[in-house]
Design a protein that fits this description.
single chain; pyruvate-formate lyase- activating enzyme; 3 domains; 5-stranded parallel β-sheet; 14 helices; globular; binds S-adenosyl-L-homocysteine; binds iron/sulfur cluster; binds FE3-S4 cluster
């Protein structure tokens, strides 16, 4: 039996890609292991969104030289976004690397395995792990935007939406295997369209799949949240009331230079409309984009005050080779560090404040352990009674303590 150890970096799309790649390995007789020392194959699925992410993946690969030397028959697969960016150069630098499969090659991963001659179809396929409470379903690949800081379009290519029927089948398979919640995935997930079927239609259709109690999605782009979208989803309680909606900057000038396609005001209008339908909003923010002035940065801080995000993930701008922003004159690292510090201090209290807003409300909690689950808005809830894992419990929130809600039942 070929034992495979998987190391995944990057976003949830990458996690889903790792599952997909493993399914092809399982069809060739492989099974999963979480112990590197007993593995015959290592699959590294990589990210290159920031330099640090790429560096982690490449240094893991470097460390595998010794692992491979122990048993030369061992196989190393380097896949995903960093594999796409670095390409053949990697194989020269790390000659012990067996298979290179860039992010754009995910649809041909099975052929890549077959061509390598290192794996062959088996009469007894390996087990693929059950999905758990949340089933991840990729609905689109790639990105058609050209945000000036971002490498994703160049490593993932343009948008390709999967057919609705395939998506519904995938969701049904995962629900039949025990998933109660389906998370739809794509880099601009709400740009989805297949013929007449819009993203909102798709959400409604997935929510009707037998066994599906809740539908989430990530990550959407602000420009696709239209009044039509809200009208189509507002009466469907199975669509989770949490949206991760990256803003990137609070300055309209920087947003333009980033080519985000919206202004500060438009973004604020969108989240107010979403909030009016009960959505809880988290975000991503970049500090130190090359043209960001002190005043621009103050605009980001004031947007954080105004928007009342649930959570804000904050990143220092990282120049990515080949992107327009990497060619601009860069700010000093010291400035990036100072701004990140200030912003992190500001966002620290956000989630506590959001938790407090839930006290006194009635929530449906999807139980992940007998005493703990998540509400539709993605808040962690502790129940006083024990409930079956996977059940939905409707209960009142009595108090909040930091990052936990306490429910009556
Ligand atoms: N498709 C999503 C985001 C994908 S990348 C969207 O458009 O919203 C995830 C996050 O990484 C982004 O939201 C952004 O905040 C951050 N990011 C992307 N490129 C970056 C860079 N060059 N430097 C720092 N952070 C970056
Ligand atoms: Fe990158 Fe922008 Fe596409 Fe998001 S929308 S993946 S930030 S180019
Ligand atoms: Fe990283 Fe690729 Fe996702 S660059 S964030 S793994 S799309």
């Amino acid at each position: 039996m070929n034992k495979v150890f998987i190391q995944t970096y990057g976003c949830q799309m990458n996690v889903a890609d790792s599952d997909e790649m493993f399914a092809h390995l399982a069809a060739r007789g492989a099974e999963l292991t979480d112990k590197l020392e007993e593995a015959d194959t290592v699959l590294i699925n990589t990210c290159t969104v920031r330099d640090h992410a790429e560096h982690r993946a490449v240094s893991f690969l470097g460390r595998l030289a010794a692992w491979k030397k122990e048993k030369p028959g061992r196989v190393i697969i380097f896949a995903g976004c960093a594999a796409q960016r670095l390409g053949e150069a990697l194989q020269k630098k790390y000659p012990f690397l067996d298979i290179l499969s860039g992010a754009k090659g995910i649809e041909h991963f099975a052929q890549t395995l077959d061509k390598s001659g290192l794996f062959s179809h088996q009469d007894h396929p390996g087990q693929t792990p059950a999905p758990g409470l949340t089933g991840y379903v990729t609905i689109m690949r790639g990105c058609n935007f050209a945000c000036t800081y971002c490498i994703v379009p160049s490593v993932r290519g343009p948008i390709k939406c999967l057919p609705v029927d395939d998506i519904l089948q995938d969701a049904a398979r995962k629900a039949a295997a025990g998933a109660k919640e389906i998370m739809l995935l794509g880099q601009t997930v709400n740009a989805y369209r297949d013929g007449d079927v819009s993203f909102a239609d798709l959400l409604n259709r997935v929510s009707e799949v037998p066994g599906v109690e809740r539908v989430r999605f990530t990550s959407p782009h602000p420009i696709y949240f239209t009044p039509q979208f809200l009208a189509a989803v507002k009466d469907n309680p199975k669509i989770a009331r949490h949206i991760h909606l990256p803003v990137q900057s609070g300055s309209t000038k920087v947003l333009q230079e980033m080519k985000r396609g919206y202004t500060r005001e438009v973004f604020l209008d969108k989240i107010h409309a979403l909030r009016a339908c009960g959505f809880n909003i988290s975000t991503d923010i970049i500090v130190g984009f090359p043209t960001e002035t002190e005043e621009d940065f103050r605009q980001t801080l004031s947007l954080v005050d105004e928007a009342k995000f649930f959570i804000a993930y904050c990143y220092k701008y990282s120049p990515r080779q080949g992107t327009p922003a990497a060619e601009m004159k860069q700010l000093e690292q010291k400035v990036l560090e100072e701004r990140l510090d200030i912003l992190l201090n500001k966002v620290r209290g956000l989630s506590d404040a959001a938790y407090l807003t839930q006290v006194g409300t009635v929530q449906e909690v999807l139980m992940e352990t007998p005493h703990k689950g998540r509400s539709s808005g993605n808040f962690w809830v502790k129940t006083s009674k024990a409930h079956p894992v996977g059940s939905l419990v409707r209960t009142e929130i009595e108090r909040a303590d930091g990052t936990l809600l306490f429910a009556r039942d």
